[in-house]
Specification:
Elements: H1 6-40, H2 56-59, E1 64-70, H3 73-94, E2 101-107, H4 118-123, H5 125-129, H6 148-156, E3 160-164, H7 165-179, H8 183-191, E4 198-201, H9 204-213, E5 217-220
Parallel strand pairs: 1-2, 1-5, 2-3, 3-4
Helix pairs in contact: 7-8
Length: about 220
């Protein structure tokens, strides 16, 4: 019966320990690689959901997209001025045409009344007049949309207008109380008498969000 020398036994123990340690190191290395791969895995870029109600924004032709968010009478008038300047500068300095610019002006909150035509202003001056008075001015009751001329000019150049449905229903409630009609009847009448190139949107705040998600640069006035 042969006997193993102490040197042979120690050598085998050393090799076994060495192999075990190497396997542990390899396992740790592989685990580290796997963790690194998990951490470095690219995430998909954010893509906003699309809704059919907002497809009209993509239907407006234009190489450059701009949306104005207005919430006050002064803000609405400023937006019309800026929209005109935007188109003028692009025509004069860039050689672009009106159809090269997609512009939306949103009327919501206090500026909503500017989204209705002269017929509504003539019929319901009391309900709409508070929408027209500049800050600090005495209350007046104009019988025509104060921005009618600018609205007509810009509409003819292709500017689109979005009118807040929620604010329209609030104004309809004011009209219903004074005119003795239902809120729904007043709402339907206002909705049918928007300015040229205007459409009713679910809410102005929603429209500004959807426009930005579809590539429009936003300006708040």
């Amino acid at each position: 019966m042969s006997k193993q020398s102490p040197n042979s036994s120690e050598r085998r123990s050393f090799l076994t320990s060495l192999n075990t340690g190497a396997a542990s190191v390899a396992a740790l290395a592989l685990g580290g690689v796997a963790m690194a791969q998990v951490k470095s895995a690219p995430t998909a870029p954010f893509e906003p959901a699309r809704h059919d109600q907002d497809d009209w924004m993509d239907a407006i032709p234009g190489k450059h997209r701009l949306v104005f968010d207005t919430t006050s009478a002064d803000g609405f008038r400023d937006a019309l001025l800026y929209a005109g300047n935007f188109m003028l500068a692009n025509r004069n300095d860039y050689g672009l045409q009106n159809q090269d610019m997609a512009i939306i002006v949103i009327a919501r909150h206090i500026s909503t009344g500017y989204g209705y035509n002269n017929d509504m202003w003539a019929k319901y001056p009391a309900a709409l007049s508070e929408q027209a008075a500049p800050a600090g001015a005495e209350a007046k009751q104009p019988t025509a949309n104060p921005s009618a001329r600018s609205l007509t000019t810009l509409a003819g150049q292709g500017v689109q207008f979005a009118v807040c449905s929620m604010a329209t229903r609030r104004i309809a409630g004011m009209i219903a109380t004074s005119a003795g009609i239902t809120v729904d009847a007043a709402f339907d009448e206002l909705s049918a008498n928007l300015v040229a190139n205007a459409r009713l949107v679910s809410a102005g705040i929603v429209a500004i969000n959807r426009a930005q998600e579809r590539g429009y640069s936003a300006v708040t006035t």
